[in-house]
UniProtKB/TrEMBL annotation, chain B:
The keyword NADP does not apply. This is DUF1513 domain-containing protein. Residues 1-22 form the signal peptide. It comes from the Bacteria. The lineage of its organism: Bacteria, Pseudomonadati, Pseudomonadota, Alphaproteobacteria, Rhodobacterales. Coiled coil: none annotated. Keywords: Signal.
Amino acid sequence: MMRLALISLAALLPLTAPAAQADTAEAVTELIVPAYAAFATATAALDTATQQSCDPAVLAPAYHAAFDAWMAVAPLRLGPVEDGGRALAIQFWPDPKGLGAKAQKALLQADPAALTPDAFAQQSVAARGLMGLERLLWPEKPLPADPCPLLRATTADLARVAAAVSADWQGDSGYAALLQTAGEPGNSTFLSPTEARQALFTQIYTGLEALRDQRLGRPLGTFDKPRPDLAEARASGRSLRNVVLDLQALRALTVALAPDTPKTQAAFDHALTLAETLDDPVFAGVATPGGRLKVEILQQAVTAIRDTAGVELAAVLGVDLGFNAADGD
Amino acid sequence: MASRRAFLAGLAAAAMPKPGWAAVGNPAFLAAGKTGEAYEICGLSEAGEILFRQPLPARGHAAAAHPLRPEAVAFARRPGTFALVLDCVTGAVRHRLTPPEGRQFNGHGAFSADGSLLMTSEVVAEGSAGRIGLWNGRTYARLGEWDSGGIGPHDMKRLPTGALVVANGGIATDPGDRSKLNIDTMRPNLTLLSSDGDVLDQAELDAELHQNSIRHLALTGDGVAFAMQWEGDAAEPVPLLGLWTPGRAPVLCPPAEAEMFAMKGYAGSIAAGPAGIGITSPKGGAVMLFDTAGAYLATHRRADVCGLAALDSGFLASDGGGALLWVTAAGMEPLTTGGPQWDNHVVPVGMAG
């Protein structure tokens, strides 16, 4: 139903008017580029700390700071972070087959040669990144070997990847420039300014769906079979925190792109209030009827943001969901 | 080596003059699209130029090009209650094909090499049992039907031998609203039918991939490349491309690990040619290329990309924003922009299917 509403409303609005209100440059230069730079800084700090100590208690603050910084850009799945599977190498989640733990187990007892920067960069994306670090810092079972060499290899790799992503957004040939020169001669990535706005809109729309289906949907499971064990970053106690940060990142991107979107912003604020007052940091409550209901209400609020953005934000930006992407056959 | 010879022979056949199609500029491909609120079908050159355009009364899925006459059969989107035989010279609707009572078109069709027979993928509306509808290729009278060998057939391709490969997607859908009814138990297959409709061979995927719906096909000489759509957990990486030579087991072609989620579990079109095999994902906004043996080559990003056809060098891709693009392993560049919002498929003219 919303899809129909979206298409019909978008069709009524002239495609030229929205551009004046939509600000790709604002979103890119004021928000996205600084956020990737901050993520690179935070992962470098985590790496520095890890080279000095492998004590989980010492490393926890730097780990959380790096993960927080990632959450500011985590919904973005375009550009440099998509090159060579970098987004997966930064955070491999969800991982229903436990690929990360399996690959990591082998690395824990591997020849140190597998942990040199060049060799480690070739290891499975599932073994690397923030979730790999979480398994070493907050292990479910005692680890079969000293995790320190693997911890250090993982933080160094994470900092390297984060720096590369940040660098690839910047400069004359960076991805920020590509988004801002959409439609200009020589830009074969974005053939019109609408395509650049469309790309950023898609990040918000699909980001909200991923939040609903993965970060909230995985622990919710079904009524008969809730899966609190599948909550994201449960071992480090970040499940709800990631939901709040995800909502904040998506809201900030919406506001930067299209300040005049009161309904969408109100929908974000409603969901943020629900999330911030939810006293259930790792969604353990989904196993009880009352606790489950609260998370379901939050999930419905996220769906409501998506549906509102699909109408209001799409209209302001003069874009839609994609002729084929929203169809399927 | 036999397959390579057959492959080259197939190309030579494709390049042969197509008498009737000269009247509309000898298009290499047909593609449907939408401009404003109007739907149309266009003939395209290999360089992405629009050679003719004719209106369609509604959004279509795929088309089949008659091998000799400038006629396109445009299939309605599912549930497919009709198909139109369009005169590409005048735009006149020559015939309106309606499946028999209790049958629905399922999006694709293929002509025999001489154009005397049109075969259409169909389902029995209740239960989605697959049928191949048979139509006279000149009068478009219904001749009969074959069992497709599975549930929910979608694409089909005719091998050089005259046998037909059918992708039975395995999904039973509600006849009214297309909702999927059997995701937990679906079992897609590839079925090879003789020119009399007898089942000559069938292939299934391993049990853990039973939710990988086999939907679209491209000819690779003596076999097919097949593209899949994953109905299981989106977080499980699964191959979306496979190769099947009848008489052998299907071979799956995984992407590079770093690109395992680039397609979002969804391949919308497939094409095969001298440059290898390509699959597209409008949901992932990506084109993924493999070599002719199925080894992964490259992934290129393009929002809402879907239609794909093989060129002598590389591929032609279409997107929902009106661009036609030239795709090779090295990269992707626009050929033409500002066309209609291109729909799912770019169909070669002069080859069956």
